[in-house]
UniProtKB/TrEMBL annotation:
Segments crossing the lipid bilayer: 28-44, 64-87, 99-118
Residue ranges of every copy of the DUF2231 domain listed in the record: 25-157
One Pfam family linked to the record: DUF2231
Record protein name field: DUF2231 domain-containing protein
Entries under InterPro entries matching the protein: DUF2231_TM
Coiled coil regions in record: none
Superkingdom classification of source: Bacteria
Keywords: Membrane, Transmembrane, Transmembrane helix
Amino acid sequence: MRKSLKQPVPEKRSPTVESRVALKRHPLHPILVVYPIVCLSLLLPSDLVYQWTSDGFWARLSWWLNLIGLASGLFAAVFGMLDMFLIRVARRHVSVWNHFVAGVMLLALAALGVWLRAADPAAIWPWAVVQSSLCLLMVIVVGWLGGTLTFGHGIGVYDHASKDYGVDDAPGE
C-alpha cells in the first residue's frame, strides 16, 4: 500500500516510457485512435446538418460514422489496454486509469448511438443529437487525458536523443 499520493517514479528515472505494443518503435495505440476520434467528432456536425437539411444522406453518414467510430475505438482500445497492463509504471499513474475509464465511457456512448440509429438512422431527434454531443465532449476529455500521458508523463514515447542518435545528431537539429 502506498503511503503518499505522489506519482511513482522508477528507480532509474527515464524521461520516457517505451510502448510495449509497437511496430518498429511506433506505438500502435496512438496511431489507431485517430480513426475513432475523427468519426466520433464528426457525429454532431453530421446530425446537425441532417436536422437542418432533412437530407437522408446525413443521417446515413451519422450511422456509419458512429459504427466505424465504435469498431475502430474497440480495436484501438485493445492496444491501449495491452500497453496499460504491460507497462508497470504506467498502471501506477492516476492519469492512465482516468484515460481508461473515460475511454470506456466514450465507447459506451458510441454503442448507445449505434443502438439508437439501428432501427432508423433518420429518427435521431432528440436522443441521437444528445448522444453525439456527449460523444464530442468525451472525445475531448479522453484526448486531453491521453495527451497528458504522452506529453506530461512520457508514456509511449521514446528518448531519441539518448537511444538512436548522438547528442549532435538529435532530430530537428
